[in-house]
Amino acid sequence: MAAVDEMTLGDIVTDNAVRFPDVIAYRHGHRTVTHAQLRYRAVQLVSAMAAAGVKHQDPIAVLSRNSIEFGELNAATQLSGIIMATVNFRLSPSEMDDALRRVTPSIVFCADEFMPLIADLVAGMPSEAMLVAIGGQAPPGITGYERFIEGGPSGVPEYAARPDDIAYLLFTSGTTGASKCCILGQREMRRVVFTMNNEMRCGSADLGLINMPMFHFGALAIVGGLHTRGATVVLQQQFDAADAVRLIADERITVLHLAPVMLRELLDEASDRLAVESVRTVVYSAAPMTTAILRRARLPCCRTRVSSTFTGRRKSLSLDCPENCTSSTNPTPPSG
């Protein structure tokens, strides 16, 4: 049996396919992929990328809003040791160009809405990358995602990730200067997602709503934390309070990841508190939580824990509500 530090993120993908094959890994709208299907398609992606000339520890880039395809690419790179570089779609064209030139990806997987811009940027790079279109109809001369993935057989991945491999290249938002490229390793990120799973106390029966962009470290950490024990990730492409309340009610969401301003909007929208009664854990980040929002959340029974689990600079707070709690003591937000 491999020592814990000798395992990779890819071992989580394989473990879930064996232990929770029929549990949904990702849900987006009416589309779903189970944990067994996620690994199958991830292996196909690895094979297709290898056939296109991508080697172990070569970078590929992803520019997309939250999608099942993003999740499949994440699983493929976790299994194979191919590096995933995520490009922030909120960056300016010049910043995107800078990110792509620094990464020099072999393939750019790009959502159709961003394809005109990215096609122009890639054409101007010294070493032109292959373009694969996610969603919609692929433009002439560009391979569509499903056509690309069909070119790769499943079975055993062409490459296997190693603990010392680089897993991700993530770019900061550039609010205090030029965007910086952050390097995250397989071993280090595996520790992060297990820490998140422990903080959220989630298992295969849990469903987490993810509307933070998956290009961001926080979303990848929460997704990884949910998947560490076979939970389900329900995706929104961007936060919409009314849609979030509907999804919580319809899917019986148990875990939320929100910034405080998003939680406030969700509370404003949830006039019927029974619509969100399934939620037992809220993880927040990005800004301080006010006492007023905490009290409006009506989690008086909560054990309030502060941890810097997926960022050293910003704090995160888990509010865990025990089942059938009737305590009436108001929570007090932590200092710091």
Give the distance, in angstroms, between the N- and C-terminal Cα atoms: 42 Å
Mean pLDDT over all positions: 87
Order of helices and strands: HEEHEHEHEHEEHEEHEHEHEHEHEE
Write the CATH homologous superfamily of the largest domain. Answer: ANL, N-terminal domain
Task: Assess the beta-strand content as a share of residues.
Answer: 15-25%
Mind telling me which CATH architecture of the largest domain this is? 3-Layer(aba) Sandwich
Describe the global form: globular
- CATH topology (level 3) name of the largest domain: Rossmann fold
Organism: Mycobacterium numidiamassiliense
InterPro entries: AMP-binding_CS, AMP-dep_synth/lig_dom, ANL_N_sf
Keywords: Ligase
GO molecular function: CoA-ligase activity
What are the main properties of this structure?
Rossmann fold; 8-stranded mixed sheet; disordered C terminus; alpha/beta; 11 helices; single chain; 336 residues; 7-stranded mixed sheet
Please specify the SSE layout and strand pairing:
Blueprint: H1 9-19, E1 24-28, E2 31-34, H2 35-51, E3 59-63, H3 68-80, E4 83-86, H4 93-103, E5 107-111, H5 115-123, E6 130-134, E7 143-144, H6 145-150, E8 166-171, E9 181-185, H7 186-200, E10 207-210, H8 217-227, E11 232-235, H9 241-251, E12 255-258, H10 260-269, E13 281-284, H11 291-296, E14 303-307, E15 316-320
Parallel strand pairs: 1-11, 3-4, 3-5, 4-8, 5-6, 6-7, 10-11, 10-12, 12-13
Antiparallel strand pairs: 1-2, 8-9, 13-15, 14-15
